[in-house]
Design goal:
Length: 137
Amino acid sequence: MAVEKVDVTVADFDAHFDKLFAASGDDDDGKVKLLLFLADRDASSSLTWCPDCNVAEPVIYEKLEALGRDVVLLRAYVGDKPTWRDPAHPWRVDPRFSLKGVPTLIRWDKGAAAGRLEDDEAHLAGKIDAVLNASGN
């Protein structure tokens, strides 16, 4: 089983989201579809400015590899800290996501969020499992 990771920013998010998620609203390809909203990385360290992101990412990736299913993971980078802090940030005000913090992991099923895990809980293995096994049924 494979984990396909697609990295996007605010600028190119809609095109990738529509291609990978919205266009297949019936989800007949059998892939687990996930969005992971993260802080931007520091090029010199490969870490993000967000401590919760740095802790949660490796745990999430480990769980995805162990899932035993094909996964599409859209990693959406929110920008630098001042950009993210703006209350009008596009993903804060978009009703599909209504982000409050990063990291946020969302399971997308049948055209809508079927499971969600936010910031300070995104590193908890049991909670990650619950999102991965959520269904929009």
